[in-house]
Amino acid sequence: MIEVLSVASEVYPLIKTGGLADVAGALPAALAERGISVRTLIPGYPAVTGGISGGRVVAEFGALFGGEARVIAARAGGLDLIVLDAPYLFDRPGNPYMSPDGWDWPDNWRRFAALSWVAHELAVGLVEGYRPQVLHAHDWTAGLVPAYVKYGPSDRIKTVMTIHNLAFQGTFGADIFTQLRLPSHAFSMEGVEYYGGVGYLKSGLECADIVTTVSPTYAAEIRTPAFGMGLDGLLENRSETVFGVLNGIDVTAWDPATDASLAQTYTASTTHKRIANKMALQEAFGLEVANAPLFGVVSRLTWQKGIDLLVACVDALVAQGAQLAVLGSGETELENGLRAAAMRHPGKVGIVTRYDERLSHLVQGGADVVMVPSRFEPCGLTQLYALRYGAIPLVSRVGGLNDTVIDANVAALYAGVATGIQFAPPDEHALADAIRRALDLYRQPESWKKMQRRGMKSDVSWETSAARYADIYANLLGLKDYDDQNG
C-alpha cells in the first residue's frame, strides 16, 4: 500500500473557504479504493479542534516557530487527520487566512511554514511507525513542503505540488528567510527566492518532483504569460513534469436523489420534481414565486470570477423575463452592485452575502441555469455540481470550465452531446449573448430536458482522477505495475 500525507490548509467538512477544501476532503476516499492510504495534515483551527473527538497526541514541540505545539491523530468526517494543534498560530476567529477586519494575518508566513515543517518531520519519522512515502502539498499554504524535503536529510521522500489557483502565491519579504529553518543556499532561484523575497508557491513549483493542477486546459494556460501570473517561465521550463488532473466531486455528498438540503429530491428521470426546489429557492432569496427562468450564482464575488460582468448584464437579464439568485461574498464594490440591482428589480434579483452550504445545494437543485463567468478558472466545482443536479451550466471558455462543459452549439445539439453553454471571450458582451442563448434554449422544453438529463449522466466523480493520481504516485515510487496489481 502507498502511504500519502496530504497537506492542506482547509478540508471539508471541517473547514472550507473554497474548492480546495472539497478536493482535500473527497480525494482520500477515492484513492482508498485504489489501495492508497491518505492522511491529511491540517491546521488546528477552532473548527477543526472542535470537530474532532477521541484524538490522541502523537508528538509535541517545545518550540515550533514561536510557541509550543502538539500533533494530534484523529478521525473526523470520514478522514484520517493529523492536526497541528498550535493555538498561538491557529486559534483565531473566522476565515483561516484573514483577520476579522479583512486583512491577511501578518504572520501567515509563520503559520504555514510551521505546517509545512511538520509535514516534513512526519515524513522523516516524527511519529514511530508512520513514514509516508509521498507528501502531496496543496497550494501556497503548503508550498514550503517540497523545499523542506529538497534541502532536508532524506532523498527517499517524493513530493507532489498541486496548484488550485495560481493567483494566490504566498509571497513575503526576504527578512523572513532566516526564520524558516532552511540552509542559506535555499535562498536562490532554484529554491525559495522569488523576485528578491520568499515565494511559498514558487518554491513548491521549483522543488517538487511533480507539479499538478486541476484541469488539462489550466495546465496549458498557466505556461503562458496571459495566465501564468509571473510563473509561466518556471512552469514552461519543467513542462514535462506538469500535469492537469481534472477535479471530481463527492457524488455521495452531492446527490440530488438523497440530498437533505433540497426541498424535493429527484433523479435524472424525475427532473420535473425540481420545481419544488425552484420555488423554495425563490422564497429563500425573496424572489417572486413564478414560472420564470431562474439563473443562480454560487461564488466568491470577485473580478476573477467575472462578477463585474454579471453586474453589467443584470438589467438585460431581467428585461428578458428571467430572475437571478446570487449566493456569495467578496469585493465590496461588487456586493454593492448586486444589492443595487436587487433594489432596482425587487422580486427579480436576490442576493445572500454569506457562506451557506445548505443554500448552495438548493441553488444547484432549484436554478434552471448556474452561471460561472470567470476570467480564469483552474477547474471549478460549481459547474460540476450543476451538471450533477440538472442545472444547465453557463460558463466562460477557460480552464476546467472548458474541459467539463460541452457547448450547446448547433453541431453539439444536432449530435446530442451538449451539456451547457460556453462563451468567449470573458466580457460582458459575450456573457449577454450567452444569456440570450440560454433563454432561447429554455423556451424549447424538450431540448432543455435532454440537456439536463445528459448533464446528470456525466461522470463528475473522482474515479478517473483518482486513477491518474494513483499512477503519478506509483511512477514516482518506481511501481510501474501498480495499477495491474491493484485492479
From TrEMBL:
Listed InterPro entries: Glyco_trans_1, GS/SS, Starch_synth_cat_dom
Catalytic activity: [(1->4)-alpha-D-glucosyl](n) + ADP-alpha-D-glucose = [(1->4)-alpha-D-glucosyl](n+1) + ADP + H(+)
Record bears the keyword Isomerase: no
Annotated Starch synthase catalytic domain residues: 4-236
Positions that bind ADP-alpha-D-glucose: K16
EC number: 2.4.1.21
Pathway: Glycan biosynthesis; glycogen biosynthesis
One Pfam family recorded for the sequence: Glycos_transf_1
Residue ranges of domain Glycosyl transferase family in the record: 291-452
Record keywords, A-Z: Glycogen biosynthesis, Glycosyltransferase, Transferase
Top-level enzyme category: transferase
Similarity annotation: Belongs to the glycosyltransferase 1 family. Bacterial/plant glycogen synthase subfamily.
Protein role: Synthesizes alpha-1,4-glucan chains using ADP-glucose.
Protein name: Glycogen synthase
Organism in which the protein naturally occurs: Devosia nitrariae
Source taxonomy: Bacteria, Pseudomonadati, Pseudomonadota, Alphaproteobacteria, Hyphomicrobiales
Gene that produces this protein: glgA
